[in-house]
Amino acid sequence: MVNLVRVTDKNLELAYKIQKEIFPEEPDYLFLKGAVESDDKVLNHYIAYVDDKPVGLTGTYTEKCDKDSIWLSWFGILPNCRKKGYGREMLLATIDMCKKLPYKYFRCYTHPVLNASAQPLYKSVFQLCEKYQNPKDVPCDWIYSLSLTDEKVTKWDDKYIGIKEYEQLGKDGEKYRKEHGRQS
User: What is the domain range of residue 95?
Assistant: First the structure.
């Protein structure tokens, strides 16, 4: 059974190491660090453990443009722990946490090719999938949505979510780590 442990100052480096192993081309140290330092009660990341062994990373955040939705943040299973059902357990545990919060919808954006291994899981858990085509943002992503209430899920409908800014934050994080003597 998957146990989620919140990322704090004490396990931030481990969370980053896990994130970088799962997403080697998309490290995002500053987003993880910002969540640890934030007073925002929704912006959190969690290391998933099975017994005492880390198996993955998950998290949540919100977008300023929509007070009704909570979003899945960095989500992935370490390569040597895949195909054991941990991803489904971790996603369902994340959703269960979100059902206790005052949000109507749970959403995530994902790339159909770069995150291809997660697509079958997302398709089986989420209720709605739509292509994200906001012309001011990075194209070719999918947005998955799920209702956290009895209300029918609504489409995201291409509202701007700022994927470009998240990508830049990842680049800035690698620069920050080098400037502060941390090896990536």
Answer: 2-179
